[in-house]
Amino acid sequence: MLIDLDLYIFNAVGEVLDSQPLWKGNAVVALSEEELRDARVMIGPPIHDSIRGPITMDTIRDRQGFEVGFRVIPENRSVALFAVPEAVWSKWQQSGSWNRRRENLGHVDDFLFL
To answer: Residue 78 and residue 86: Cα distance in Å, rounded?
Structure first.
């Protein structure tokens, strides 16, 4: 199933640290270990440039986004996300094709979200 989704990383006070497109279930995000320790992670449909103002967790929730838990895997600097319930992801729009911007995940020193 092809769903156009982005990964959103927020700090403890709800400010966006980064957002990246998901490509084949993966996204690369540059976070320090301290930022990762306090991070809150959401998955949801991309927020287009037409949205005015800062992206908040409520902005993502309003678009059927979901906050996911995660587990850090220090050996390979990756983070495994917990599953999103089908009741949530089944509401996400199926795009029918992958967005080409999702193909480049060539970062090495960042955390890889799986």
So the answer is: 24
Per-domain boundaries in the chain = 6-99
Q: How far apart are the first and last CA of the chain?
A: 17
Q: For the whole model, what pTM was predicted? A: 0.76
Q: For the segment 51-98, what is each residue's pLDDT rounded down to a tens digit?
A: 777 889 998 998 888 999 988 888 888 888 888 888 787 777 654 444
Contact between residue 72 and residue 79 where contact means Cβ atoms under 8 Å apart:
yes
Q: Are the C-beta atoms of residues 18 and 10 closer than 8 Å to each other?
A: no
The tokens describing 28, both together, are 């690369």
DSSP state of 12: T
DSSP strand pairing (6-10 vs 70-73): unpaired
